[in-house]
Amino acid sequence: MGDLPLDINIQRPRWDQSTFLGRARHFFTVTDPRNLLLSDDQLEASRNIVQNYRAGVATPGLTEDQLWRAKYVYDSAFHPDTGEKVVLIGRMSAQVPMNMTITGCMLTFYRKTPTVVFWQWVNQSFNAIVNYSNRSGDAPITVRQLGTAYVSATTGAVATALGLKSLTKHLPPLVGRFVPFAAVAAANCINIPLMRQRELQVGIPVTDEAGQRLGHSVTAAKQGIFQVVISRIGMAIPAMAIPPVIMNTLEKKDFLKRRPWLGAPLQVGLVGFCLVFATPLCCALFPQRSSIHVTRLEPELRAQIQAQNPSIEVAYYNKGL
Q1: Does residue 178 fall inside a structural domain?
Q2: Which family does it belong to (predicted)?
Q3: Are 10 and 53 in contact (CB under 8 A)?
Q4: Considering the domain boundaries, does residue 14 fall inside one?
Q5: Best CA proximity match to 135, nearest among 50, 196, 224, 94
Q6: Considering the chain, what percentage of its residues have pLDDT values greater than 70?
Q7: In a 10 Å sphere around its CB, with 0-12 CB exposed, 13-18 middle and 19+ buried, how is residue 177 labelled?
Q8: 140 band by pLDDT with thresholds 50, 70 and 90
Q9: Residue range(s) defining the domain that contains residue 35
Q10: Average model confidence (pLDDT) for the chain?
Q11: Is 215 left (phi over 0), alpha (psi -120 to 50) or beta?
Q12: Is residue 100 a part of any domain in this protein?
């Protein structure tokens, strides 16, 4: 068996990203919770394999499947722009186990104000870590900016939840169960732009098709953040819309009336089942490496690109997750 050829393009995902199916297969791999169980040594080994291969050195005896496995392990733990190792709960592979626990508790403990405040705070704290860890670009963000964004987003989420809770007091119980979802959807519209405000100020890197950096664009940042907000709200819909309907029916049955302690774990399990599919499928709504026509970029950047290479019509950027 010969050495692995060096012409495999691991700069791109293994599957065709121009199709939804290809993106879905990619994100089912990226969000696989089993990646959280990998040790630091395994992560470092995968990083070495990927970096060596990109440098033109194939690890002896490495197969193509092993190369792609190393690439996805590397992608699951390291930021694509900065190369930094992402904190454990900020990785996309932590989305399902973390969100099933937090969302399940939000849907279970929605009746009392203290528990609403606590679980909305926990959720927005987790979201802040995820949004920062999966931001686009490599521009630094100060502790002050990070703190301001976190406090603003968390306050907005808690205020939304409490406001909606008070409005639904006299409505059917089933309506009240959807308050957490409305709060989460509203909070995503606040949290993601705030935690990624640096991108809206200085822009994100845009490249040509070969990956050569062309400059920074605020327009691309706005488009990427909008796509992420849509994806995150889409992720929440099945997990926060289906379990409440099921639980509202089950709680009227004698089985759960005699065993009320089963409510929380059952709710968490239902949410987890929904998230296993909703997380990768909603990540796949838009390509990770998104594109924007050069004519839609800022005038200065557009002029710079057209002066340097008039043939470039489309620029590419990492939209974040």
Answers
A1: yes
A2: Belongs to the sideroflexin family.
A3: yes
A4: no
A5: 196
A6: 94
A7: buried
A8: low
A9: 20-85
A10: 82
A11: left
A12: yes
DSSP H helices, the chain, are 20-30, 40-54, 64-77, 95-108, 113-133, 143-167, 173-176, 179-195, 197-202, 218-250, 254-258, 263-283, 299-308
Q: Is the domain of 200 the same as that of 290?
A: yes
In a domain, 45, yes or no: yes
Number of domains in the chain: 2
* Average pLDDT estimate for 183-206: 80
Structure tokens at 117: 């405040």
Selected residue with higher pLDDT from 228 and 239: 228
Q: Domain boundary residue among 85, 107, 142?
A: 85
Q: Same domain for 220 and 111?
A: yes
Pair (173, 133) in one structural domain: yes
Please give the Cα distance from 236 to 245 (Å, whole number). 15
Q: Residue 1 above 60 pLDDT?
A: no
Which pLDDT score, from 0 to 100, does residue 241 have?
80
Whether residue 213 sits in one domain with residue 66: no
Contact between 26 and 15 under an 8 Å Cβ cutoff? The reply is: yes
Residues paired with residue 126 on neighbouring β-strands, in sequence order? none
Q: Are residues 270 and 183 in the same domain?
A: yes
Q: What angle do CA 316, 290, 10 make, to 5 degrees?
A: 75
Candidates 108, 99, 126; CA nearest to 179 is: 108
> Which residues make Cβ contacts (< 8 Å) with residue 204, sequence separation at least 6?
136, 137, 139, 216, 217, 220, 221, 224, 317, 318
Strand partners, 85: 78
294 in the same domain as 203? yes
CA 316/CA 293 separation, integer angstroms: 9
Domain boundary among 85, 116, 142: 85
Whole-number percent of the chain with pLDDT over 90: 7
Task: Tell which residue, 161, 171, 167, 185, has the closest CA to residue 109.
Answer: 161
